[in-house]
Design goal:
Blueprint lengths: L6 H11 L5 E3 L2 H4 L13 E3 H11 L2 H12 L2 H14 L22 H11 L3 H7 L3 E5 L6 E5 L4 H4 L3 E9 L3 E10 L2 E7 L5 H22 L1 E4 L10 E4 L5 E2 L1 E3 L3 E4 L8 E6 L2 E3 L7 E8 L5 E9 L5
Parallel strand pairs: 9-14
Antiparallel strand pairs: 1-2, 3-4, 5-6, 6-7, 8-12, 9-10, 11-16, 13-15, 15-16
């Protein structure tokens, strides 16, 4: 059980739907959602994008249901969207039944899967903008009711570089948190689940998240994937003003421990014969980079640096 960290996936799907400027109507089902809730009433209407603030800042369960019904047509249809999105993001051991993460049979995920989901969400500026908001006032579209919500992510103001976070708690899940911080071009994501109960669990959640982020920033740095220059095979060009193409590749940087790249292996996949004209920038192959256990690290394109007329 992952409690309200689930709402990161809910918010991501809503933002991607393009419906944030549309009005959403509160259903009887949404109005009956248990605490934590705003106390929305059936029939009220709110701008969809505004409901993302109570969803992410104060974890409002009724807002989650309103948004799910707006984007999915029903909670059940929205859950199907959640599972499809999670799978597309590489989540392998997750299944979502609700848009708010309340305890329900079958609703589960792993820390790794929740980290993947948040990593995708923080690529969006609109998600980060909402997650970094300290206070927000939600107003019914006819102006008759207002709600003030405050951000419950304590690390937002106490941890350097914190750009997003979402808390969670249920009886099954215990205290949970997913968050992301950025320093010096490095962006790290943390997910801690089942940190305990009561005040002790609340404090442990923050301690664990901060300890993991500290470890990440202290241990990992941005380093070039390819440490020593790779000599590429020749590519023959038929009917060209020159017989061979000049090739190049970019050398991306990734987060890794010092010395980790020394164990990387490189497999070159290259089409060895071409026919002119061959434009500059044509991709002629790729370099597969793998770690010492054979797992993929990066795929680097090889392309022509100059045209062959």
């Amino acid at each position: 059980a992952v409690a309200s960290t689930t709402k990161v996936l809910t918010a991501l799907i809503v933002l991607e739907s393009g419906q944030t400027d549309q009005e959403a109507t509160v259903s009887a089902r949404a109005a009956a959602a248990p605490k934590v809730h705003l106390g929305l009433k059936s029939g009220e209407r709110y701008r969809g994008g505004d409901l993302l603030y109570p969803l992410l800042l104060e974890s409002s369960n009724d807002a989650a249901v309103v948004l799910a019904e707006q984007v999915g047509g029903s909670v059940e249809n929205f859950a199907a969207k959640m599972n499809a999105k999670a799978k597309a993001l590489g989540a392998k051991d997750s299944y979502f039944v609700t848009p708010n993460g309340l305890d329900q049979d079958g609703n589960h995920a792993t820390a790794e899967d929740m980290a993947r989901i948040l990593a995708a969400a923080v690529k969006r500026e609109d998600f980060c903008q909402i997650a970094q908001t300290e206070n927000f006032t939600l107003t019914q579209t006819n102006g008759t009711r207002q709600f003030s919500v405050q951000n419950k992510n304590r690390l937002l103001t106490s941890y350097e570089g914190m750009i997003a976070g979402k808390t969670g708690y249920t009886g099954l899940a215990g205290q949970c948190f997913v968050g992301a911080a950025q320093r010096g071009g490095r962006r790290l994501v943390v997910a801690v689940l089942g940190c305990g109960y009561g005040k002790a669990g609340q404090e442990q959640k923050w301690k664990d998240a901060q300890a993991l982020l500290d470890y990440g920033f202290e241990t990992f740095s941005l380093q070039p994937v390819i440490q020593k220059r790779i000599d590429l095979p020749l590519v023959v060009v038929k009917k060209g003003q020159q017989s061979f193409a000049e090739l190049m590749y970019e050398n991306p940087t990734i987060l890794m421990k010092p010395g980790e790249a020394a164990a990387f292996t490189y497999d070159i996949e290259l089409q060895r014969e071409w026919t002119a004209p061959l434009p500059a920038g044509t991709t002629v192959g790729i370099i597969h980079v793998k770690d010492e256990s054979g797992q993929p690290v990066s795929v680097i394109p090889i392309y022509t640096s100059r045209a062959v007329p």
